[in-house]
Amino acid sequence: MQQLGYQSQLQPFSYTAGFFTEMSGQNVVATLMPSHPVKAHVILTAHYDHLGKQGDSLYAGANDNASGVSALLFLAAQFAETILPFQISFVATDAEENGLHGAKFFVSQLPPDDSVTILNINLDMLAVSRADKTLYAFTSYAQRHALQSQLSAITSDTIKIKVTSSSNTMNRLNQGSNIDWRRASDHYAFAKAGFAYIYFGMGYDPHHHQRSDLLSNIDQNLYIEAVNYITQFIQQLDMTKLTEAAQ
Ligand SMILES: [Zn+2]
């Protein structure tokens, strides 16, 4: 991030795990300071923690969430030289798996400024091998139409995009999974604080939190398509049309 010219820092924090155990983590925060005052701040997040080693088992976490972190790094490289009509930050969060702690801490440290509209774009599990080749954009009920119209301007030969604000809908399309997609990842820390958010992911993954979450189970072409799609979306993002706070 530093090499790309971003103002970057480690953001250490501590949190309580279980009842009494004090744990620590650190986010990586990189920001491109705009050359002129802007009214909007787009904050991309991807958690870089995973289950890691448990006993003799290694949980590599290729989809959850090396896929999101790789996309974050790619996007940071793409936008390092671009003048965007908003401030952009890239945050690799820690301690997502045991309670979204890194994202919660990051949100708690945002300067209170009502004149700046914040949008979180969260990337988590972007590389599920799916026959239906669908990328989900999960957002708030209030924002879904505005988001839909911006996403429909982007074309892809291979990937289908599904905008939804309903966990029920997303579960129905995902082998009947039973996931609260609003709370499932770091975007919830932003949602809870009243900020707009978009969660990009490919939905239910049978390898989630299994040792089989490996590169060999990833459809790499589909993943690249998904990341290209998100890149285009950010390039064309019109924040003035996405200003409704999400709840
Ligand atoms: Zn995850």
From TrEMBL:
InterPro entries: M28_fam, Peptidase_M28. It comes from the Bacteria. Gene3D superfamilies: Zn peptidases. Pfam families: Peptidase_M28 (PF04389). Residues 27-231 form the Peptidase M28 domain. This is M28 family peptidase. The lineage of its organism: Bacteria, Pseudomonadati, Pseudomonadota, Gammaproteobacteria, Alteromonadales.
